[in-house]
From TrEMBL:
<comment type="similarity">
    <text>Belongs to the catalase family.</text>
</comment>
<dbReference type="InterPro" id="IPR020835">
    <property type="entry name" value="Catalase_sf"/>
</dbReference>
<feature type="domain" description="Catalase core">
    <location>
        <begin position="8"/>
        <end position="389"/>
    </location>
</feature>
<keyword id="KW-0376">Hydrogen peroxide</keyword>
<feature type="active site">
    <location>
        <position position="55"/>
    </location>
</feature>
<dbReference type="GO" id="GO:0020037">
    <property type="term" value="F:heme binding"/>
</dbReference>
<dbReference type="GO" id="GO:0042744">
    <property type="term" value="P:hydrogen peroxide catabolic process"/>
</dbReference>
<dbReference type="GO" id="GO:0046872">
    <property type="term" value="F:metal ion binding"/>
</dbReference>
<dbReference type="GO" id="GO:0042542">
    <property type="term" value="P:response to hydrogen peroxide"/>
</dbReference>
<feature type="binding site" description="axial binding residue">
    <location>
        <position position="337"/>
    </location>
    <ligand>
        <name>heme</name>
    </ligand>
</feature>
<dbReference type="InterPro" id="IPR011614">
    <property type="entry name" value="Catalase_core"/>
</dbReference>
<keyword id="KW-0349">Heme</keyword>
<dbReference type="InterPro" id="IPR018028">
    <property type="entry name" value="Catalase"/>
</dbReference>
<dbReference type="InterPro" id="IPR024708">
    <property type="entry name" value="Catalase_AS"/>
</dbReference>
<dbReference type="InterPro" id="IPR010582">
    <property type="entry name" value="Catalase_immune_responsive"/>
</dbReference>
<keyword id="KW-0408">Iron</keyword>
<dbReference type="Pfam" id="PF00199">
    <property type="entry name" value="Catalase"/>
</dbReference>
Length: 482
């Protein structure tokens, strides 16, 4: 027979009742000396941390990355060496909705991976699309404001969304993806993941390469139509969380084939597209995908708040063999994530179990709220007390020349850089007739919201005509503007 534990305060002191507050007589006022009940109420008032300012609603699971191919000629990163197995945590999310919003709303999906490598945490914080809406971080908060809620009535507003998009033509590629049925994936298991940015890889000899990551679903791509996604919202707001949790619980472990595209370092300067522009892909004809391994999710979290809500991903967590590229969006994100974690979770968020590296930590950072383990003496560097010392060899391979005037400017244009050329290729060469029909229908449905003005509808038609005249015609006809 198992012995039932007795309730205690959080300090471990036995609690006398789970039902009755301490009172003066059965009807009497309550007493301040009832520390147990006061602790319960005070603790309850502090249960919520702020939700993520974006990607608030999500779910996640633990898993493993297995590398099956030898890519040591491209990177010396330990986790990418053939035969390596690395534990990981992956969080999926929607972007614009709040913590209680519905999983199947039209939105990109987050695909954020934390690899617990022997050389510290490597975080790859991507989406289910290989591109993004904007290419300069100075526009990010404005973009997000336009997708969230108005100031006056706190409503989401499609007019505001189209206003931002049509004034930001670099958004066309991502909005095309978003408006196809890939904007409403059937489950997180049935979508791809992408690192999206270009990253720098360097090998043990210091040779450098640019790389893009593709995680291709082994379950196959499956999407909802707009109508199906809407119907699911009415049935089950937590459809995707439930799907992932149930599949893993039943031993049906989802997996993704891990591919990379690799560009020689020198090829970037005169490649036909700016290879660091986050609104562009690298066409496969130029840089085919190379399979390097498999990512499998194997274990559910045991505690949603502790492990999913407090998970903190940061694109700045890069390990030896991998470094940032000059992608301006990536550069902005290197700052943004640790900054929001210090605010949202607290200064010592990296000590929480889901975020704590499995590699040893020898840092001179100390103290602060909720610090769990602290470095001992010496508390400074350099020191003559044999404390940890940095090793400059870890930087070898990562360095490259940059020079230029300090300016505020768009990227220098490469030969074929144009905001519409790649969404046009998607429309012309990749989408099936059914995909195209649904794309037009989804755009028309979205831009037909009552708040979208007549002038805005004209701008919407112009935006899509720039992608392709047939698409423009379809949207115009659907909006009654033919
Ligand atoms: P390819 O024909 O070699 O590749 C097309 C890509 O599109 C494949 O990765 C395909 O893989 C993906 N795709 C297929 N159906 C859809 C869909 N309905 N929505 C989004 N993606 C889809 O051509 P290119 O590499 O020259 O690219 C052509 C266009 O395809 C690009 O302009 C871009 O819009 C899109 N694309 C390109 C990617 C790349 O990294 N090169 C990646 C994804 C899209 P799958 O069906 O497995 O997703
Ligand atoms: C979450 C900022 C662009 C993917 C977040 C969060 C912030 C943020 C502040 C909340 C993090 C948290 O509270 O834990 C930014 C900024 C960007 C940017 C400033 C551009 C300058 C992108 C891009 C991608 C992306 C381009 C994908 C390619 C994600 C994902 C999450 C996230 C997946 C959720 C991570 C998780 O699951 O916890 N972003 N973001 N973001 N962002 Fe971005």
């Amino acid at each position: 027979m198992t012995i039932r534990p007795y309730t205690t305060t959080d300090a471990g002191v036995p609690a006398p009742s789970d039902e009755f507050s301490l009172s003066v007589g059965p009807n009497g006022p309550l007493l301040l000396q009832d520390h147990y009940v006061i602790q319960k109420m005070a603790q309850f008032n502090r249960e919520r941390v702020p939700e993520r300012v974006v990607h608030a609603k999500g779910g996640g699971a633990y898993g493993v990355l297995r590398i099956t191919e030898d890519v040591s000629q491209f990177t010396k990163a330990g986790l990418f060496q053939k035969g390596e197995e690395t534990d990981l945590f992956l969080r999926f999310s929607t972007v614009a909705g709040e913590l209680g919003s519905a999983d199947t709303q039209r939105d990109p999906r987050g695909f954020a991976i934390k690899f617990y490598t022997d050389e510290g945490n490597y975080d790859l914080v991507g989406n289910n699309t290989p591109i993004f809406f904007i290419r300069d971080p100075s526009k990010f908060s404005d973009f997000i404001h336009s997708q969230k809620r108005r100031a006056d009535n706190n409503l989401r507003d499609h007019n505001m969304q189209w206003d931002f998009w049509t004034l930001s033509p670099e958004s066309a590629h991502q909005v095309t993806f978003l408006m196809t049925d890939r904007g409403t994936p059937k489950s997180w298991r049935n979508m791809h993941g992408f690192g999206s940015h270009t990253f720098l890889w360097y090998n043990a000899a210091g040779e450098k390469f640019w790389v893009k990551y593709h995680f291709k679903t082994d379950q196959g791509i499956e999407n909802f139509t707009d109508a199906e996604a809407g119907a699911v919202i009415a049935q089950d707001a937590d459809y995707h969380i439930r799907d992932l949790f149930t599949a893993i619980k039943n031993g049906d472990h989802p997996s993704w084939t891990v591919n990379v595209q690799v560009m020689p370092f020198e090829a970037a300067a005169d490649y036909r597209f700016n290879p660091f522009d986050l609104t562009k892909v690298w066409p496969h004809a130029d840089y085919p995908e190379i399979t390097i391994g498999k990512l499998t999710l194997t274990r559910n979290p045991e505690n949603y708040f502790a492990e999913v809500e407090q998970a903190a991903f940061e694109p700045a967590n890069l390990v030896p063999g991998i470094a940032a590229s000059p992608d301006k969006m990536l550069q902005g994100r290197l700052f943004s994530y640790p900054d929001t974690h210090r605010y949202r979770i607290g200064a010592n968020y990296l000590q929480l179990p889901v975020n704590r590296p499995k590699a040893p930590v020898h840092s001179y950072n100390k103290d602060g709220a909720m610090r769990y383990s602290n470095p001992g003496d010496p508390v400074y560097a350099p020191n003559s007390a044999n404390g940890p010392a940095a090793d400059p060899s870890f930087f070898a391979g990562e360095s490259y020349q940059v020079a230029g005037e300090i300016i505020r400017s768009a990227y220098r244009k490469h030969a074929e850089d144009d905001d519409f050329v790649q969404p046009r290729a998607l429309w012309e060469n990749v989408l099936s007739d059914t995909d195209r029909e649904h794309l037009v229908g989804n755009i028309v449905g979205h831009a037909s919201a009552p708040e979208v003005t007549g002038d805005m509808k004209k701008r919407v038609v112009e935006y899509w005509t720039n992608v392709h005249k047939d698409l423009g015609h379809g949207v115009a006809a659907g909006l009654g503007l033919a």
